[in-house]
Design a protein that fits this description.
Two copies of one chain form a homodimer.
Chain A: H1 18-33, H2 40-47, H3 61-86, H4 91-108, H5 110-116, H6 129-148, H7 158-179, H8 184-187, H9 193-205
Chain A binds a DNA duplex through loops.
Chain lengths: ~220, ~220
Amino acid sequence: MKSPKKPTKKRAYHHGDLKDQLVAAAEAIILERGVDGFTLREAARRAGVSPAAPAHHFKDAKGLLSEVALRGFKDFGDALDAGDKRGGVDPQARLREQGMAYVKFALANPARFQLMFRAGKFDYAYPGLADAGMRAQGILARAVHAAYGIPDGEPLTPDANGFLLATWSIVHGFAHLALGGELDGSAQGKGGKRAIVESFLPLTLQHLPVPKVPRKP
Amino acid sequence: MKSPKKPTKKRAYHHGDLKDQLVAAAEAIILERGVDGFTLREAARRAGVSPAAPAHHFKDAKGLLSEVALRGFKDFGDALDAGDKRGGVDPQARLREQGMAYVKFALANPARFQLMFRAGKFDYAYPGLADAGMRAQGILARAVHAAYGIPDGEPLTPDANGFLLATWSIVHGFAHLALGGELDGSAQGKGGKRAIVESFLPLTLQHLPVPKVPRKP
DNA sequence: GCAAAGAACTTAACAGCGTCCAGATAAGCT
DNA sequence: AGCTTATCTGGACGCTGTTAAGTTCTTTGC
């Protein structure tokens, strides 16, 4: 559907690779001015093109942001996967490492993360986006399945579902509070932003929920 | 066109109570179109005044939203307080009830809640806002102090602080995920929105962290 | 009792935004 | 070569927040 002609010299069009440059510009703008500070015209300006040029690569402003979110979700999934593997065979360790990876990704990629969880700023129907989002969610779900000794295909028990939600909520909430600056007050005088991830985060994850059911129901 | 208003004791100026009507309009708009869908002009339009009229009551658009957030934080604090009292003398029960109140408020007041935790949409320096925000935070902190047997004035131990953050994160994260529609997938076929608060929430709060220190030495 | 003061509001304007449209330009295809 | 198609420009439209200057009405001072 794109250009299956000659991938050898793909850049030599008119401008080069405007699409990628627009994505890069968008991420930079969000980083500097926040998600709400993003404007399509500014992205075009930074790429050196007219305000109408992006329309040839993205349906509209939401389209560009959708592409940014998509790439974010892919990397996010990779980070969670890496954390999961780091946890080895112990479900508890897998969950802990995933939690660390979850929050660390959020703090290391504030622009993307804030966009990714801002429904309305992008189209969930953008090609590939729903898949990437569900993949990330599935990584956590699989670890919960393992923790409760439930085969991957089967549905979770109510309690296991509550456990999943609690775990998800705690890491998501922590990331959200940290990015929102809600924790800055407590972190003041204790090392600031660094203290949040190095001190507060481990201390918080120590209180991650524990599965209420041994491996055998 | 001139609607008969009830000025009661206050003077019925030109329009009446434009300030309150602007606040009401703002809340309605946020409810209908989301926080990002709010525009100052639309609020003025609904109040039946020109786009420049709000400037006489609020410094700018952020000023109006600050007033909305302020009223939200006040009610939020009241809700948390009520939950705390509902918990009686048992710190665990107090925390559980506060958690329920926290999420229920968010789901019952989605417009306000989403605004309240959207730094950048309002001025934190708006008169009374910081106080109202800290009051709400303090309610949770006091229950944690009680759970760990630490006098109210003294600082929390590192573990107690982690416990506070974990508790806050879990309810905040749940509210955020629920409002973002992130839970709709799982809730489908199980009762939708109602299932979230009636089924998922209690199940999740069952996994609230437990203080790692016995209350009395 | 009446004019001065000032609060509440309007009208008009400005710059910036997203998006649509008609044209220009350059690259690839036959 | 000619033709087609992708890419980008320039201008326009209606929307936004905010400011400046002018108008209408309420309150206050004398």
